Amino acid sequence: MSDHMINHRGPEFFELITECTEKLKQVFMTENDLFILTSSGTGALEASIVNTLSPGDKVLAASAGSFGDRYADLLDAYGAEVTRITFEWGEPIDPDGIRQGLKDDPEIKAVIVTHNETSTGVTHDLQSIASVVKGEFGKLLLVDAVSSLGCVPLPVDGWDCDVVSTGSQKGFMIPPGLAFISFGRDAWEAQKEAAMPRFYFDLEEAKKYLDRGQTPWTPNLSAMYGLRAALENIMDEGMEGVFGRHASIGQFTRDGVRAMGLELLCADEARASNTVTAVKMPIHIDGEQMMEIMRTEENVVLAGGQGKLTGHIFRIGIWATLNEEHIQEVLDALGRVLPRVGF
Amino acid sequence: MSDHMINHRGPEFFELITECTEKLKQVFMTENDLFILTSSGTGALEASIVNTLSPGDKVLAASAGSFGDRYADLLDAYGAEVTRITFEWGEPIDPDGIRQGLKDDPEIKAVIVTHNETSTGVTHDLQSIASVVKGEFGKLLLVDAVSSLGCVPLPVDGWDCDVVSTGSQKGFMIPPGLAFISFGRDAWEAQKEAAMPRFYFDLEEAKKYLDRGQTPWTPNLSAMYGLRAALENIMDEGMEGVFGRHASIGQFTRDGVRAMGLELLCADEARASNTVTAVKMPIHIDGEQMMEIMRTEENVVLAGGQGKLTGHIFRIGIWATLNEEHIQEVLDALGRVLPRVGF
């Protein structure tokens, strides 16, 4: 990431963006168009909405956590007519609920869903959801994969996901500052009529520039250098290796937490996330104090709960280059700190 | 920029964003709100529009180059009713033209203008423009300062500029990936009624988060580490030092180019940019070939012309840490290469 700057309209950048885009498609397991945006993951989510929909379009938003809610808020901001189907935070989204929602209103044009809900530590059953949305109803499927892509299986073409958005700072193991979005055939069809206003996140413009190895606006070059290196690592390991590693460390984390007498927020082991583990805060424990001691004395930064889960859970992120030794250190630190706060 | 990642909802980030924001205000010479966005400069320009205007609002867009045109395109994309006042590319925007435009249509709500037109090497007379727009007519003034801020004087409060946007990769001497925007009192007044849709670039949301030392979305942390270091350098040198250095190297570049028998695009020396020098391509010279030899044999990357200036000019960027020795190397290389292509 410390390489010197290059002309982003020149031949060196052409090579950089071409290599990154081709390898990203392998991680996304897609032949769809794929764009690198200079923004955080939320920028890609905005792109997924404004490039496919018009104000007034009916959209089904399935959510079981704060990131699912945020994606739906984005629809509201741009004037879509949103039907929200919500599930208990900590539980998986039920594909039957989506099926019912689509039956109830045939005018619904698209469904948005979060693959891995970072706020609750649940990986939703995207494969089943996609088979309902695309297979049964032929609706547009927009997926927030910020905390899943490059960690757990998400074969974009295999599951037929029209638009999939993610960020650089989780599965891709580099700092935040880039977002990636795949955009399929049905999405381009929708784009032709999509009347929501867009400029910075206009993917038609991005496609024109990508065809000549550029981005419309000045790109985050440093992060792209990091991305190139990260993608080489991922290609060397292979996607099956990446998924196996995350599955193994996810299991290790959950087993370790339960062995300490703690309870997971997600009771459904088959849907427990392999990228973030959400742990119920034991009652009578001051979570703020616990996390503060962990941070200042143990050098372990845990995340608290968001929204209505504030104070009720803490979360352990297990993305990217973390290994079992790191997680064991976290568990050992928890073993020292929790008794001090009354557990 | 290689520092390890931190929790962007934690106390270390609070310190980072607070320090950067306070020092950015000193560079902007403003007490207005100031936001750090994870995007390129165009993202800040989009923020300037969508946070102040509604679809159908009448806006005067003054332009004399491709970046001025791009800013106006952004207004079109979001449904503003745009009156374009255009000036010859290579000439400064005439404040009288803006005065006439505002007289002609009292319903105009805002004026957009590019301070330094990178495509032509002209620094427009923003002080006079602001005195017309704000002083005489009391309209909202939105300024694209991507290639001027932190290089040439732009006292945001002194000139009463409501919204000023810039990027990280020019005056701030760090890689692209961050944008900065100042947002003043009249802009907040306009924001209350601004109905353009916004989410990623919603500054009301950004303000809520900034008040607790955060950003709404995951920020480009690496670039913020670089920004902190760059701002320390700028503070050490002082704004007068920064401006004096750019004025001196701008003059050095223009004198050197003219001494070679070349002609500048900007005939008005008082308005020639101190951050980019646009040089007329001598007739009968193959500019593509000349720039290719410069790049491959002399390791000097020049920029060509954009839009209707393609093939007619080449440009020398003189931002940031470049010194006279660097420019002398560019001039020496030009002295070797130009005769080879027939000059």
From TrEMBL, chains A, B:
The modification N6-(pyridoxal phosphate)lysine is found at residue 170. The keyword Heme does not apply. Substrate binds at residue 315. Keywords: Aminotransferase, Pyridoxal phosphate, Transferase. InterPro entries: Aminotrans_V_dom (IPR000192), Aminotrans_V_PyrdxlP_BS (IPR020578), PyrdxlP-dep_Trfase (IPR015424), PyrdxlP-dep_Trfase_major (IPR015421), PyrdxlP-dep_Trfase_small (IPR015422), SP_NH2Trfase/AEP_transaminase (IPR024169). GO terms for biological process: glycine biosynthetic process, by transamination of glyoxylate. One of its GO terms (cellular component) is peroxisome. Residues 6-306 form the Aminotransferase class V domain. Its cofactor is pyridoxal 5'-phosphate. One of its GO terms (molecular function) is alanine-glyoxylate transaminase activity. The keyword Repeat does not apply. Its EC number is 2.6.1.44. It catalyses: glyoxylate + L-alanine = glycine + pyruvate. Belongs to the class-V pyridoxal-phosphate-dependent aminotransferase family. This is Alanine--glyoxylate aminotransferase. It comes from Geodia barretti (Barrett's horny sponge). The lineage of its organism: Eukaryota, Metazoa, Porifera, Demospongiae, Heteroscleromorpha.
